[in-house]
Design brief:
The protein has about 280 residues and is mostly beta strands. The chain has two domains: about 140 residues, no CATH class; about 70 residues, Immunoglobulin-like (Sandwich). About 10% of the residues lie in helices and about 35% in strands. The protein is built from three helices and 17 strands. The strands form two sheets. Strands 1, 2, 3, 4, 5, 6, 7, 8, 9 and 10 form a ten-stranded mixed sheet that branches. A seven-stranded antiparallel sheet has the order 11-17-14-15-16-13-12, with no helix packed on it. The longest helix is centred in the N-terminal third of the chain and has 10 residues.
Length: about 280
């Protein structure tokens, strides 16, 4: 009888050590932590608690270079918890991380293998049973490849850890809360907004009226009229019973990261620019 190679036996043994996948969803002011397992998991020992949840993959696309281009993850929604988060938080552009750990080694190890880290799209497939969250620009599985798109625009989330090493893009401080004076289904007026023209452009805003929370993007801020224009209309009109929290955004271009624009960081943040400055223009003769 032919014996299996030692390397194959080692791999088989590793697969029997109860691997589990950790899912981290980074939202503004909140991180959701789940584990695809039958009970909650604390990782590492004494660290964060990952809530057990039924999770499956709806699809994974991978390039020839071994890079995950897009992943779709189905999260259980029977308890309506995911729907509540979607109603209250903006998922688009935030980070999804998927890590593999081995449950038998948690007590003595902090090691994990990060399988994917990408930027989420706004959840679209929402049912009573599950919610599908898709993300793009993931990590390579096998070969070393460039993780960022070769693009003039920065692909980092403004205010995120990678774009915040000097504090110039800290969304914890670059926000405003208040109660609207008046408005429409697409505009909010508050005389307390005294920032420069376009200051809140590209940002996000959370509105609450009648106990219902709405997430929108800021299309424009008019300093002269103290007015924020939303990217999408609301099903109700904004009035003096509407409260809001608005977060500063950024065009995520080299020019904006030099604080040359009102909607850029509060100071020069070029050192943390995540795009590509010098991209030639291809012209066919």
């Amino acid at each position: 009888m032919k014996e299996l190679p030692a390397s194959v036996i080692t791999q088989l043994d590793a697969q029997q050590k109860r691997p589990a996948l950790l899912f981290e969803i980074y939202l503004t002011g909140l991180t959701l932590r789940y584990v695809a397992y039958m009970s909650n998991v604390t990782f590492p020992t004494g660290g964060s608690v990952y809530t057990a949840k039924a999770i499956s993959f709806g699809g994974v696309s991978q390039t020839l270079e071994g890079q995950i281009g897009r992943v779709a993850v189905n999260f259980d929604n029977v308890a309506k918890d995911m729907t509540a988060y979607i109603d209250s938080y903006d998922f688009e552009g935030r980070t999804l991380s998927i890590k593999r750990i081995f449950l038998d080694a948690i007590g003595s190890s902090t090691y994990y293998n990060e399988l994917f880290r990408g930027y989420m799209e706004q959840p679209k497939e929402i049912t009573r049973q599950s919610v599908t969250i898709s993300a793009t620009e993931g990590k390579p599985l096998q070969r070393r490849v460039l993780l960022k798109k070769y693009d003039r625009e920065c692909n980092l989330t403004f205010g995120g850890a990678a774009c915040n090493t000097d504090g110039n893009a800290n969304l914890a401080s670059l926000k405003a809360t208040g109660t609207a004076d008046s408005g429409t289904t697409t505009t909010l007026v508050d005389n307390a907004l005294t920032q420069a023209d376009d200051y809140w452009n590209y940002g996000s805003i959370i509105l609450v009226k009648g106990g219902v929370t709405y997430n929108r993007k800021v299309q424009d801020f008019d300093a002269g009229a103290d007015t924020i224009t939303l990217d999408l209309g609301l099903p109700v009109a904004i009035d003096n019973a509407t409260t809001y929290t608005v977060y500063k955004g950024c065009a995520k271009t080299w020019d904006a990261c030099q604080s040359n624009q009102a909607y850029g960081p509060s100071a020069d943040n070029k050192a943390n620019f995540g795009g590509f400055m010098h991209i030639g223009i291809w012209r066919e003769s």
